[in-house]
């Protein structure tokens, strides 16, 4: 591959050649988007033998289909799968494929009007002859993984089934032999799971009246079923060990002494047809169990690898109150009137009289108490109340000693169990939580927990966690790697020794692109080798293999910084491996920071060899489970993602096996993308991506949308599918409709987020104009959220833009600083000081920076018309921020229109609203940049009383 020389303007992706006589294709319209067909994300599946590829394809709105393609030839089968795209599954022997067929789009829309319940079908396909077997009303299904002739199918409950809280949850389940076509029906099944080998099926029964309830075990080789445990109880959360020789689950019994069911943990080992060994642990029979707590029903229990310990959650177990009685029958006898009693007698009678009052009749205040010492804001506690109530503290029952070991508690809420279950890492941030929620700088005390004894040892006091820090534990469970103050270290859990890993390496392990207010943010810790001998840690470019004691370090990529290459991440093609097995061929995503090319590298001979790197984005590399067959995806700005399959370990001769976006050829599409290199006014060398319009003609200048957020050029070769986005802007639609789109990178200076945007974006626009592609008189700017803030600020500092559209912008940094981020309930203070705000301290100590970077304090300078989107239920940027800016501009008689979608959050979720805003934004830009007629809603507005008729007249009909 030839080395590309950095130049101020480089052509990428396409060798541009134009003919004046070329016939122009029509532009995409928003109505075309609804019918746009494409492969649905995350639906690709490669069969275990590597001979079949399946995926789901269909329009943005409407019915989808499963496409099955034979890799070795052109055989293709298509199966309708309804309005919802689901995952396709293959049996382990690759003989069968199965998927759920959801109801059709028309059926779903009709059912919404009548509240009719709809059900999925299961479709099983015999691949050798394309014969189908179908089952109606299916709730779930699973192949027996390594015993592929079996499949379990659970059916949905009948509509006549009781639906009250205590009703039985079990339904029919079919165990079906795919080869013999024999089936066995099991009734009242509530939960089921095959072990990995597929030779055992565990299932629970939840029947009417709890008759026959229990946990059952079926031997899939002999057909023998045994009852492991039976009781008037409910059973759930079956969890097999990885090797499939044991499993754990929960059992719930009603107990009148408590408000909710009381859980116990069952661990099953020594699997046999008749009698399997079981361990039952109950909080009610263990006097050492924490007072007031019980076993949680919201955390799945599991066995340790050596089957000596059961892990589960604990939580508060509320006792039931005394049963209510008839107040008339239980009221005490009333004595003489109070006026005739002594004061003492009256005082003694008062409690008795009050006792007769039903507590439900007492009016209680509805209030919240906000105390300055609360570690979490009351609003955060409200938002997180459900998760707090369901939160469970990790505990362990050590079977040999019959001993409970409590691991987590109200202070040490986070406990990470290490592989092999010898140790755990406990994180206690209780002393630092309040300040962390205030300034975003996170600290914690880190403990090492011995899982055999329960002893806790302080590893690190006041450990700084912000900025890509954390523990990576080796597969042997005895070593951990961590980062502090620019250096990676290891700690040996057994000896307590710490070793410096990266201190002697002549490279920086501080992320050079992270410009937040964070102390020396870390580069990527990429885990451990499978044998636990080496830590795998990346600097800003190269990946290093470092011995656990830090004495040796080898770069697996050879001085890639000199080539502007970086190791991006490892493809996980061996999902069962623990750590990176350096004895196997490993593959890595590689990326060129300078020209944005990407590719795939292969680790062999101790070095990563770049197999290919091009003006495409390569991704999704997988290996067939049972064969040396590989599949990967490839896309660019102009070409949608396609999957290629090859049997070559160097990934050569890849064969395209998908046909994505078949309608793209009918429409005008972006003619390519150019990468512009320029200097910000702060002196930083930066880049911007300039996407060309469809039917681009050299020498002609085009109206341009500048879209901003933070750093965007790394996505230079990423495909944008036509869609109705939550923020209104879709690059593919705009380039198809004759716009150029500019996406610059922004580098920030602390305490100057807005001014940094000005320093980066304005020179980017000027550099784009200098190419001759961008019409200097027809440039607009748009951004959403943080991009919306920067858009709102930029128009207070420059008149280079003819129009602007800002979505959900923060506009007043002072008022915003102490407002609530309602989606989480936390304050914005932490976001300002350690995240996107990039400010230091509160505004009272930094008032000039806050005002200098706030749109509202510079509002008099605005001369650019603004389309403002802010929804009334925005839980990220408070609605008042939009109102404040809108009213300020309106007071100054500046052209501004604010659109609010009632009930919508930070982005637009409802499809009719997404459609509406996408159309309005383009109408606005077409008027401002293309001299099309102004839409009425912009030029005149719409009175509230006329709004309903106006919206009916404008309703977006995707069918027309």
TrEMBL record:
Hydrolase recorded as keyword: yes
Signal peptide: 1-22
InterPro entries assigned to the protein according to its UniProt record, in alphabetical order: 6-blade_b-propeller_TolB-like (IPR011042), AB_hydrolase_fold (IPR029058), Peptidase_S9_cat (IPR001375)
SUPFAM superfamilies: alpha/beta-Hydrolases, DPP6 N-terminal domain-like
Record domain Peptidase S9 prolyl oligopeptidase catalytic: where: 762-930
GO molecular function, one term: serine-type endopeptidase activity
Keyword vocabulary terms for this entry: Hydrolase, Signal
Domain of life: Bacteria
PANTHER family xrefs: DIPEPTIDYL PEPTIDASE FAMILY MEMBER 6, SERINE PEPTIDASE S9 FAMILY MEMBER
Full protein name: Acylaminoacyl-peptidase
């Amino acid at each position: 591959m030839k080395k590309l020389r950095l130049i101020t303007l480089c052509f990428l992706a396409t060798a541009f050649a134009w003919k004046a006589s070329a016939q122009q294709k029509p532009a995409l319209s928003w109505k075309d988007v609804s019918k746009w067909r494409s492969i649905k994300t995350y639906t690709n599946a490669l069969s275990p033998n590597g001979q079949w590829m399946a995926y789901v394809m269909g329009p943005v709105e409407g019915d989808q289909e499963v496409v099955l393609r034979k890799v070795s030839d052109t055989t293709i089968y298509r199966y309708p799968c309804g309005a919802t795209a689901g995952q396709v599954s293959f049996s382990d022997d690759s003989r069968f494929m199965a998927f759920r067929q959801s109801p059709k789009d028309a059926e779903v829309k009709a059912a919404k009007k009548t509240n009719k319940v709809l059900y999925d079908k299961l479709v099983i396909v015999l691949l050798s002859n394309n014969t189908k077997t179908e089952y109606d009303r299916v709730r779930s299904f699973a192949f027996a993984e390594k015993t592929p002739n079996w499949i379990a199918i659970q059916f949905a409950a009948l509509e006549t089934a009781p639906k009250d809280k205590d009703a039985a949850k079990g339904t029919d389940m079919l165990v079906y032999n795919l080869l013999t076509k024999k089936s066995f029906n099991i009734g009242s099944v509530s939960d089921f799971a095959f072990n990995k080998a597929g030779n055992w099926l565990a299932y629970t029964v939840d029947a009417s009246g709890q008759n026959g309830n229990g946990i059952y075990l079926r031997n899939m080789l002999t057909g023998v079923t045994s009852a492991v445990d039976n009781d008037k109880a409910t059973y759930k959360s079956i969890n097999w060990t990885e090797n499939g020789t044991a499993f754990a689950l929960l059992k719930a019994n009603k107990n009148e002494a408590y408000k909710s069911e009381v859980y116990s943990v069952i661990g099953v080992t020594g699997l046999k047809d008749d009698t399997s060994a079981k361990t039952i642990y109950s909080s009610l029979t263990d006097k050492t169990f924490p007072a007031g707590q019980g076993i949680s029903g919201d955390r799945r229990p599991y066995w340790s690898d050596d089957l000596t310990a059961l892990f589960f959650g604990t939580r508060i177990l509320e006792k039931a109150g005394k049963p209510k009685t008839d107040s008339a029958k239980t009221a005490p006898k009333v004595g003489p009137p109070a006026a005739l009693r002594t004061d003492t007698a009256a005082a003694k009678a008062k409690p008795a009289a009050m006792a007769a009052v039903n507590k439900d009749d007492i009016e209680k205040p509805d209030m919240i108490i906000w105390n300055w010492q609360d570690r979490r804001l009351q609003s955060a506690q409200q938002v997180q109340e459900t998760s707090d109530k369901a939160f469970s503290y990790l505990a362990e029952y050590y079977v040999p000693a019959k001993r409970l070991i409590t691991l987590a508690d109200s202070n040490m809420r986070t406990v990470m169990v290490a592989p092999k279950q010898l140790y755990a890492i406990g994180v206690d941030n209780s002393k630092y939580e309040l300040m962390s929620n205030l300034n975003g700088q996170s600290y914690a005390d880190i403990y090492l927990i011995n899982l055999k004894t329960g002893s806790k040892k302080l590893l690190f006091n006041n450990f700084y966690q912000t900025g890509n820090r954390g523990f990576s534990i080796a597969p042997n469970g005895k070593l951990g790697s961590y980062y502090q103050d620019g250096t990676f270290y290891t700690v040996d859990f057994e000896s307590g020794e710490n070793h410096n890993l990266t201190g002697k390496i002549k490279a920086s392990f501080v992320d050079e692109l992270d410009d937040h207010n964070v102390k020396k943010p870390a580069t990527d810790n990429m885990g451990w080798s499978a044998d636990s001998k080496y830590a795998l840690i990346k600097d800003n470019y190269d990946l290093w293999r470092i011995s656990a004691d830090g004495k040796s370090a080898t770069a697996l990529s050879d001085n890639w910084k000199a080539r502007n290459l970086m190791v991006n991440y490892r493809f996980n093609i061996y999902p069962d491996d623990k750590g990176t097995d350096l004895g196997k061929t490993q593959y890595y995503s590689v990326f060129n920071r300078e020209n944005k090319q990407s590719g795939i590298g292969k680790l062999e001979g101790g070095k990563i060899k770049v197999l290919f790197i091009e003006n495409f984005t390569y991704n999704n590399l997988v290996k067939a489970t049972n064969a040396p067959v590989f599949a990967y995806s490839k896309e660019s700005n102009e070409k949608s993602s396609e999957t290629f399959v090859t049997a070559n370990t160097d990934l050569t001769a890849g064969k395209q096996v998908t046909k994505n976006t078949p309608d793209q050829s009918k429409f005008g599409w972006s003619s390519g993308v150019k990468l512009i290199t320029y200097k910000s006014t702060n002196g930083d060398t930066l880049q911007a991506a300039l996407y060309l319009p469809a039917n681009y003609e050299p020498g002609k200048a085009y109206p341009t949308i500048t879209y901003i957020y933070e750093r965007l050029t790394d996505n230079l070769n990423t495909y944008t599918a036509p869609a109705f986005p939550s923020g209104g802007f879709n690059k593919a639609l705009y380039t198809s409709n004759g716009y150029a789109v500019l996406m610059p990178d922004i580098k920030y200076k602390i305490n100057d987020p807005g001014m940094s945007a000005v320093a980066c974006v304005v020179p980017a626009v000027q550099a784009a104009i200098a190419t001759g592609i961008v019409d200097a008189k027809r440039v607009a700017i748009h951004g959403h959220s943080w991009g919306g803030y920067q858009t709102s600020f930029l128009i207070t500092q420059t008149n280079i833009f003819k129009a602007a559209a800002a979505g959900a912008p923060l506009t007043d940094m002072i008022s915003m600083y102490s407002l609530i981020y309602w989606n989480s309930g936390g304050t914005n203070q932490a976001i300002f000081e350690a995240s996107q705000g990039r400010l230091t301290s509160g505004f009272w100590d930094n008032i000039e920076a806050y005002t200098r970077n706030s749109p509202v304090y510079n509002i008099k300078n605005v001369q650019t018309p603004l389309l403002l989107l802010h929804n009334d239920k925005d839980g990220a940027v408070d609605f008042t921020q939009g109102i404040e800016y809108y009213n300020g501009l309106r007071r100054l008689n500046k052209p501004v229109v604010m659109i609010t979608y009632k009930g919508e959050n930070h982005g637009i979720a409802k499809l009719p609203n997404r459609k509406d805003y996408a159309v309005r934004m383009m109408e606005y830009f077409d008027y401002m940049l293309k001299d099309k007629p102004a839409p009425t809603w912009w030029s005149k507005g719409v009175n509230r009383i006329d709004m309903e008729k106006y919206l009916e007249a404008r309703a977006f009909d995707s069918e027309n």
